[in-house]
């Protein structure tokens, strides 16, 4: 008798989380898309909303298809996709004034940095797995770091927060992969020192240096440290929206600040959600992302293939860090970064390629289930009689060690 194929393959909890986040997204985008649709998209709110619905539906399809493909098939193509990502990042520097978007036939306003996020993490996981016998060598550390630095250097000048997010996620992935710990911590200390120096320079000289977007970074940092409550800015309206929502809510569709903000559906959607549904729902959304990250780590530690384990850990870390960054900005804990809230902010290429990341994770989770099922079948064939309590105790006391993957 053939076993039925489950359409929603992979980890059930991840599917539940994604369904909840995408459902929240439809409600929140419908409530906040108005002003931006008219002023920035030259469209109607309903047309923009249904475009978002289309991207959400396409993302579901992408995840379903990828979850039924063996994750091992993603390893070799990641090299070519990495090369394509680098080429696109170079092209966008010359073809777009803001150095962020490319207008492709099927993907208008396509952001190469969005595909680079996922591709680089999968490519880095592949490189670590291929060099797992030489991870203690200093040369291996630099060899693994070079592709990460290339993408970061191409992304950071036009989108600093995305560059930092990409680099930090990949650098943590090196740690997860078992790279030389002493060298990794030395690099981390150097990065912390450079970050502190950059913080001081942006604060005191950001407005005086016209290099890349340093003036924008400096202004955002100064506005965050010394906010002017009388200035009608996106960040001030986000803070007022959070204060207005309070612990409970004002009601879905009753936002005031969301109708005055051009980025209410993207960079500050979390603030509008709190305004309309209250801090309790805001805490629930954070819990969903924390649950999501926990499930990713659980899937990663259960995978017996190093490439799959690291790919899940890296993508899960990147999505969780981006979500936390967005929420901190909306609450005024961090300067404005321009990071969207994964699977909730208005859909486009960013939404779609985040779905590609989920597809990779679900592919690994589905393989874990297959391996577990095969192991149970082999165990049943080898031991037709029920195992004794002593055997069960020995089996339970020796779980798979993630360090051996």
In a nutshell, what does this entry contain?
It is built from 15 helices and no strands.
Notes on the protein architecture:
The protein has helices at 12-32, 34-39, 45-67, 77-95, 112-130, 138-155, 160-177, 181-205, 214-225, 234-245, 269-277, 279-302, 306-330, 349-382, 389-396. It is globular. It has one domain (12-379). Helix content is 67%, strand content 0%. It has 405 residues and is mainly α.
From the structure above, extract its key features:
mainly alpha, 405 residues
**Terminal Cα separation, in Å?**
34 Å
Number of helices: 15
The profile of the biggest β sheet is:
none
The portion of residues assigned to helices is 55-70%
Rg computed from alpha carbons, rounded to a whole number of angstroms: 23 Å
How many domains? 1
Q: Class by helix and strand content?
A: mainly alpha
**Broad shape:** globular
| Mean of all residue-level pLDDT scores | 86
Strand content: under 5%
What is the number of beta strands? 0
Low-confidence stretches: 387-405
Order of helices and strands: HHHHHHHHHHHHHHH
